Amino acid sequence: MKVQVYLFSLLLLLLSIHSTLAQERTLRGSIVITETGEALAGANVKIKGKDKGVSSQKDGSFKIDAKVGEVLVVSFVGFQRQEVSVESKHFSQGIIIELLTETNQLDEVVVTGALGIKRASREFGGGAQVISNEYLNQGKTVNPLSGLNSKVAGLRINTYDSKVDPQLQIIMRGSRSLNRSKNAPIYVVDGIPVPEIGRLNPNDIESITVLKGANAAALYGSEGVNGAIMITTKNGTKDKGRVTFGHTTTFSQVFMLPPAQTKFGQGVNGVYSPTQYESWGPSFDGTLKPIGTALPDGTTPEITYAAPSKDNRLDLFQTGVNMQNDVSFSGGDDKSTYFFSLQNVDIKGIIPKDVSRRTNGRFNGTRSFGKLKTSYNVSYSDFSSETTPDGPWITAYQLPANIDYKTLVNWQETNSMANPLYFFTDLQKNPYHQIEAYRNSVKQKTFNGKLEFEYPIMPWLSIIERVGLYTRSAETRSTVAKFEASGRRNINGSVTDGNENFSRINNDLILSFQKDIGDFSTRMIIGQNLRADETKSTSIGSSNLTLPDLFNPGSRIGELTGSVGITKYRSMAAYGELTTGYKNYLFLTLTGRNEWVSVLSKENRSYFYPGVSTSFVFTDAIPALKEQSTLSYGKFFASYNRTGNVTLDPYSLNNAYSQINGFPFGNLVGFTPSSRYPNPNIQPEFVKSIEVGAQLAFFNNRLNVEGSYVYSDSRGQIFNATTSRATGYSSALVNAGRLTNNIIELTISGDIIRSKNLRWNTGFTFAHINNQVKELYEGLTSFNIFRQSYANIGQAYPSLQVSDYQRDPQGRVVINTSTGEPLIASDPVHLGTMVPPYQMGINSMLKFKNFSLNAQFDWRMGGWLYSEIVPRMYTAGTDPRTAEFDRQPFIYPNSVIQNADGTYTENTSVYSKGDKAFWTKQGEVQSNTAAKSDYFKLRELNISYNIPAKLLGSKRYFKEASIGFVANNLFIIRHKDNNYGDPEYLYNTTDGYISFRQVPPYRTYGFTFNIGF
Prior knowledge:
Blueprint: H1 2-22, E1 25-33, E2 44-47, E3 53-55, E4 61-66, E5 71-75, E6 82-85, H2 89-93, E7 95-99, E8 110-112, E9 118-120, E10 128-132, H3 133-136, E11 155-159, E12 168-172, E13 186-189, E14 192-194, E15 205-211, E16 228-233, E17 242-254, E18 267-268, E19 271-272, E20 287-290, E21 302-305, E22 320-332, E23 336-348, E24 355-369, E25 372-387, H4 391-396, H5 431-437, E26 438-458, E27 461-480, E28 494-517, E29 520-542, E30 561-582, E31 586-597, E32 606-617, H6 618-621, H7 623-626, E33 631-645, E34 657-659, E35 671-673, E36 676-677, E37 685-698, E38 703-715, E39 718-722, E40 731-735, E41 738-754, E42 758-775, E43 782-786, E44 789-792, E45 799-802, E46 813-814, E47 829-833, E48 838-848, E49 851-861, E50 864-867, H8 869-876, E51 895-898, E52 904-906, H9 916-923, E53 930-932, E54 935-946, E55 960-968, E56 972-974, E57 993-994, E58 1002-1012
Parallel strand pairs: 1-7, 13-16, 36-40, 46-51, 50-57
Antiparallel strand pairs: 1-4, 2-3, 2-5, 5-6, 8-9, 10-15, 11-12, 13-14, 15-16, 17-22, 17-58, 18-19, 20-21, 22-23, 23-24, 24-25, 25-26, 26-27, 27-28, 28-29, 29-30, 30-31, 31-32, 32-33, 33-37, 34-35, 37-38, 38-41, 39-40, 41-42, 42-48, 43-44, 44-45, 45-47, 48-49, 49-54, 50-53, 51-52, 54-55, 54-56, ...
Helix pairs in contact: 8-9
């Protein structure tokens, strides 16, 4: 009996426990971010297998009815989904769920589409890549475009030089126009197209969406044919407020100077000359030698005639310093939000006295008035710079190796060789005097504002009015200090003052329809755009001043020089986009825009261009693929479009007349027409593009792959063709020429290691761009773009075409038996494209607890470059090759002699001279100064540490803090034949061209810290 009672009691206890476990109770918990420990508001918490769910509050807390054994599913866009089994202890102790940030969740990516409208990535039928603020700013660059370098497949960014305000060239998916200045993508800030974004504070940017295809950007008109860079700036959030402060200091050091010989010093024909700057003197012997002429005190300066232990040219450069300070305030409530930021950037360049300063301010806000939603953005940038032109560096690479630059600094001393009156040569100037005497200054103010209203007329219909104003005013001054002296040492002095004011008004009125009917979703945009650009530029100057320190055009000898230009551009457009989706996995988008532009004649200024794209998320469409984790996400996409492109500047179709002094004679005023025929029948270029591709995610979004193939065909190019002067014109605007692009793009990213405390993510971008010239004008097979850069039919664009030696079938150089000089070929040789067709980027992001290490590598291959520095160094005798044979007669390497019967014999007896005349002529052979432009560089390195919350003390004052090390261009590996400079540099919008006017490249390194309140 007792046993029965015991068994019965045990049964009741088990039933009671089971009943307790099976009973729903309120479970309380909180959601935090794994990496920072911060609370995460808005996370979705659901019971697996059930529809009910809740969202976490501002402090990350949540409560939900659950049973022991059930599984909580926690998700939030941008974070990895987490599943946690409910245990009985959680009801008494609570539960803390940590979410890891997720950079690879393709099915939840939100992109900024045309007109700044947010769209799900799954709808897009073309290439689009989103760059977050953290990834963009890991190198702490001042120009936001620099932060995109090597991070987007198919996007190529080149810089002009290393000055304190370096200019950039942006090309996406190759060139579509023979007009080199018209291949940049359109820049759109918060839905408003702007002409440039170089003055934008990168820390104000929330994200950048790069729309690569013309189809995605077709609603923006002609400028969208080259793709679009869509920038979304930060907004406040609905909380009690947030204050952040950041500081970055980096140091810049010049490197990659072209090598110089250190065997021979100044002189002529092997004889020392104290007043000669060229290095054709005797070999260095370590003795003291006179340099220059006698000083006012009767003494003659002396110099140690010895090879230096280091490169003395480095002394011309200083350590540059870049300091950035940023502060921002943000917050909001249920009706409004605000974001306010200030930035100050001070840069001291690697050239002494080169400085720049930039101050930025921004205010972004939103406000709801019932159904009416408003947003407004205002930004202002005040920039100024003081720089020297290219003269100091041009001088430095031609001076002898033993020149001590430290002795040239105090050029104002009257009894010194540094003084321009007593500088050792009158064929070159003291570089430090050039730095002081030749100055360029810029003061630029940029304003950008947006006002937007959105009102829902019906639940499925909204009207949007958006107006933007962009203005830029710039004051420029170029001065040369007057210096009175005899002969070449005399400097007349000059000043040129310039002003340019630019304004753009952009207005969009948009009707937005959005309606779901059964399994179908429909979104349609209908809109109109008005745009007005106006530019006024003035310039006035004098080339002969009367006083050394008075830079006033009125204080002059002779006549003033100057010009005034006023241009206006107007455009109007009507556009539409229709996107239809089926069950959220199949989408079709149709676009169309009709444009009216003022730069074309009335008969041709209206043109229409359509586009179509589709995407298919097959992992959602096929039931067997939905619940398996190997293939987490899969999408195919395709698009076709025909986009109009107008590359004309205002008034290009007007036959402008200009005044010429002395025409027709004396002081009579006469005008002559332009030598270019302004063809009134010019029509837009049209670019047809086809794109197909796929997005794939594997192993629960741990590995992501995107690949695409793109073909574009640009016909009817607008360019200036040479014509017979018998027509009365030397050139004419024509619609001719054809460029094609065959492009393969690949992006791979994934987590190699993913755990609570350790995450290692790597990514790889690849693009192969085959940009070909198919047609030119009326049988023309070659068109010179700039110096050695050509457009040749059947070859990649642009092509490097150079003069070369006569060679035998084995490539050996043919020698003139009488002079010993190599023979020059009558026809130029084509070496290859000046744009590397292979572009690759590699990134690595490693996070261990509070430490992170991010590195960005850039790799480009397959291109060629040309250096115009080397010919001058050949002539000056400073290039290493001029000393390779000790200035003695030598047998030219790999050379042959042509026999009477046309055969070739190896040269073993004919000697070439090693003097100045010989090497000067070799410098004129352009193949000697060309090289492969392949390179691999560490572009960015960022090492940071997030200080744990427990070390910050009470969160009453500090919410977060971090410190870090940052560096750019730490190392570069170049092709073995390239000793000239950084292949990334360009000159006069010409890729692969290293000019003597460019300041040499530098590497930077420094520290950064951020605090959040």
